[in-house]
Amino acid sequence: MIVYDKKMLDNGALVNEADTLYNGGFISKDQKKFIEKELPVLKSQSNILVRIGFFLLGCLLYLSICGAISIFGLSGESVFFQICCYIFAVVGFVGVELLATQNYHNHGLDDAFILGALLNVGIAIAVTTEGYEAVIAFFVSIAALFMFLRYLHLVSMLVFCIATTGFLFFEMFEFGDIGKTILPFVAMISAAILYFVTKKTIFNLKESYYYNGLLLANSFCLILFYLSCNYLVVRELSAELLGNEVKPGTDIPFAFFFYAFTIIVPIIYLIQALKTKDRIMLWISFLAIAFSIYTIRFYYSVLPIEVALTLGGAVLFAIAFFSIKKLKEKESGLTFKPDRINHSDNFLNAEALVVASTFGMKPEVKIDSPMEFGDGGFSGGGSGGSF
């Protein structure tokens, strides 16, 4: 299914490992250059700005091809309008296939043709079905999954996750008010099932090529699981989809469950992340905690905003301070020590900067003095015999 030479994919992984070892100081620059010279890799761009530049160039190329086709098809008028997006989608598929045969991967040019093909698939299905959302989401998800499986394109996996979620939502809308009412629970259960499926797939993965995409899908499931039953999301969607106006003194159905879910799930994420040392889940837990606080603050303003921010900052400072004190001397597991591989000593530099700014410490500046001191003949710093 993968279009690229797997040997070159493996070489790319080895070159990345060599770069990591070089940054960690384990190998020399000459050894790194020797490895890069001996291992042929795919044509890719690690510099995001350069990749964006090639993406814009690819978009210009794609639009030029589609524009040239449109010039010849304008004579067909309405018939061409019905099929033009299908033709443009084929152009995208053919273009990325040709680029893949030339070993372009995550380069920018291939991104333009992949995303252009997915966009045209969605527009083509929308024109044919007159805007049937569930069908559009279904075919876009299939096309995105194909792009990921064949070209190992991470953004396509993200499009697949979003399109699949959209398909689930639009299908639930087909059941009317009942489907809209149970939608949060269906989304929560679906996200939980897909999370454990992707987790097991990652654990049993024999080829590492799909690892990043599965990890992205796994992280997406964590976010979807939390948002599916977040109180703010459920209440606002309930008002938007069902027209349920929450009057003073009343609340949405199952409000207690959604309150508890909003508070408990981020804590579970945090505990699990610390237990398994999962950095991605840790960041998701921080974002979920922040959004939970925002959710409560959105409906219940207990304190003035300035007081709440001050107390929140004090609590965060206390947590950070005592965490640093506890982890500062640990050598393994969760630790405050700098990572030799990633040179992540920014925290230590920040600590020194905070101390210096707090106590008014300034770097030593050498000032040239017009007076000359020291002219002794024994052990340095005495004075001479003249005045």
TrEMBL record:
Domain of life: Bacteria
Name of protein: DUF2157 domain-containing protein
Spans through the membrane: 48-73, 79-100, 112-128, 134-152, 157-175, 181-197, 209-234, 254-271, 280-299, 305-324
Species the sequence originates in: Flavobacterium resistens
Lineage: Bacteria, Pseudomonadati, Bacteroidota, Flavobacteriia, Flavobacteriales
Keyword Lyase among UniProt keywords: no
Keywords assigned: Membrane, Transmembrane, Transmembrane helix
